[in-house]
Design goal:
This protein is an alpha/beta fold. It folds into two domains: 263 residues, Aldehyde Dehydrogenase, Chain A, domain 1; 188 residues, Aldehyde Dehydrogenase, Chain A, domain 2, CATH 3.40.309. Strands 14-15-16-13-12-18-19 form a seven-stranded mixed β-sheet, sandwiched between helices. It has a six-stranded mixed β-sheet with strand order 9-8-7-10-11-21, with helices on both faces. It has a three-stranded antiparallel β-sheet with strand order 5-6-22. It is globular.
């Protein structure tokens, strides 16, 4: 069991670490402090990586079925404490309780998925001479540094850690400094089902992340988070030769075609823009609506924004919780104010509310243009910036005019348009007539500034392993 004042896990032992810096975590709904956390030092990162390096050979040699059984045990351990874990998510980043539970359930499912797929993951034989054997085998890289975000801290961590552990790697995990209590509890539950040193954890902000990403002992650096952080991680990993898996930010477009029901389309847009207060990697960040349905669509979207029930995530009636902290709220509001100054019109929201907490209203902006930062950059807040277009082709061109390429959504009744959309849109994921959803096991590679490499699905097991070609021939 982890002592409450210890925030570093290395080699199966929780400790206070050697760092002398602390930071305070606050509840974004009330501003009240949740706890004071000790940040890890560079020496602590060395210790955690060394522990992972020491555990890696033994874990790689463990039969895959045993590794799978350990992950199944970890999934059960998380499931037994899921209510507590979800409550920590809500307290630390404000996510409504139902959504927080959904994230934990997704994490449990991911652990089970990799527990089953890990033992089945292998190489292939090659067609060589009859006097020889040729085959390709997959082997763990060794040490995986996993740096995960605050917006879905359990599901994403379970994905990266689960895939790495299932394939025989040891892990050093750094959860976001905004959700350290969640990260520590998850590490306690999962590491308790694994041999000492297979899962280690360090805590802190950007300096700790840089020390881990640039560590010579890390073979793979897997990161989900902001574009700025992802670029810095890529730069640091390039110096050591570590493999990188990056899911950075996005400015995901939503196209609303002529002929769709504007009320239904507004519901999809509201879900895409306002779920989790817009703090989802694949949130809708910009909307292109056909002029034929623009007016009723905007009216319906603004009405939905005004009618969302805002409140603390712990309240059962809350539909729109707070943003994660005051710094992030300030950034979101600055983008909105800049858009208004550049000619956008606010149909809902766009004003800082009075009172405690980091709440921000669901905001709808009409008259937006592609050059505005609100359309070009990631906002990561409950903001729906809308540009009216004259035709579907114009919308496709505008949607592709971005340095991001994470995901995109198209709402249309025209199957020819749907076909053209998924063929044309330069994004890792294209969704037709649903802003969220999809079959289990889907995996895509982000494009351009949004990152690279598979971060989900069975393909993530490939990313966590190196391929070796073996040729065996009898001596003469």
């Amino acid at each position: 069991m982890r002592p409450r004042d210890r925030w570093m896990l290395a080699g199966g032992r929780w400790s206070q670490g050697t760092g002398d810096e602390t930071f305070t975590v606050t509840d974004p709904a009330t501003g009240e402090p949740l706890g004071v956390v000790a940040a890890s030092s560079a020496a602590d990162v060395d210790t955690a990586v060394a522990a992972a390096r020491g555990a890696a050979p033994g874990w790689a040699a463990t039969p895959a079925a045993e590794r799978g059984a350990a992950l199944h045990a970890a999934a059960r351990a998380v499931e037994e404490r899921m209510d507590e874990l979800a409550a920590l998510v809500t307290a630390e980043m404000g996510k409504p309780t139902g959504d927080a539970l959904g994230g934990v359930e997704a994490g449990i499912g991911t652990l089970r998925q990799y527990a089953e797929l890990g033992p089945l993951h292998g190489g292939r034989s090659l067609q060589g001479g009859r006097d020889a054997a040729d085959f390709m085998v997959r082997e763990p890289w060794g040490v995986v540094a996993a740096i995960t975000p605050w917006n879905d801290p359990v599901a994403i961590a379970c994905g990266l850690v689960g895939a790495a552990v299932a394939t025989g790697n040891a892990v050093v995990h750094k959860p976001s400094e905004r959700t350290p209590h969640t990260g520590a509890m998850l590490a306690e539950l999962v590491a308790g089902c694994l041999p000492d040193g297979v899962l280690n954890m360090v805590t802190g902000g950007g300096a700790v992340g840089e020390a881990l990403a640039g560590h010579a002992g890390a073979d793979v650096v897997a990161h989900v988070g902001s574009t700025r952080a992802g670029r810095r991680i890529a730069e640091l990993a390039a110096r050591t030769g570590a493999r990188t898996l990056l899911e950075n930010g996005g400015a995901d477009p939503l196209i609303v075609d002529a002929g769709v029901d504007p009320s239904w389309a507004a519901g999809q847009a509201a879900l895409g823009c306002f779920a989790n207060a817009g703090q989802i990697c694949t949130s809708v960040e910009r909307i292109y609506v056909h002029e034929a349905v623009a007016e009723p669509f905007l009216d319906a979207l603004a009405a939905r924004a005004r009618n969302l029930r805002t409140g603390p995530g712990a309240s059962p009636s809350t539909e729109l919780g707070p943003l994660v902290d005051e710094r992030h709220r300030t950034r979101v509001h600055q983008q909105v104010e800049k858009a208004l100054a550049d000619g956008a019109r606010a149909l809902a929201g766009a004003r800082l509310p009075e009172g405690p907490g980091c709440f921000y209203p669901a905001t709808v902006l009409a008259g937006c243009a592609d050059h505005m930062a609100i359309m070009a950059e990631e906002t990561f807040g409950p903001v729906a910036p809308v540009r009216t277009v004259a035709g579907f082709e114009q919308a496709l061109e505008a949607a592709n005019r971005s340095h991001y390429g994470l995901a995109a959504t198209v709402l249309t009744r025209d199957m020819a348009h749907a076909q053209a959309a998924w063929r044309t849109l330069e994004a890792g994921t294209v969704k037709i007539n649903a802003v969220f959803g999809g079959a289990p096991g889907g995996a895509a590679t982000p494009r351009r500034a949004s990152g690279g490499g598979f971060g989900y699905g069975p393909e993530l097991l490939d990313e966590m392993t190196a391929v070796k070609v073996v040729h065996v021939q009898a001596a003469p």
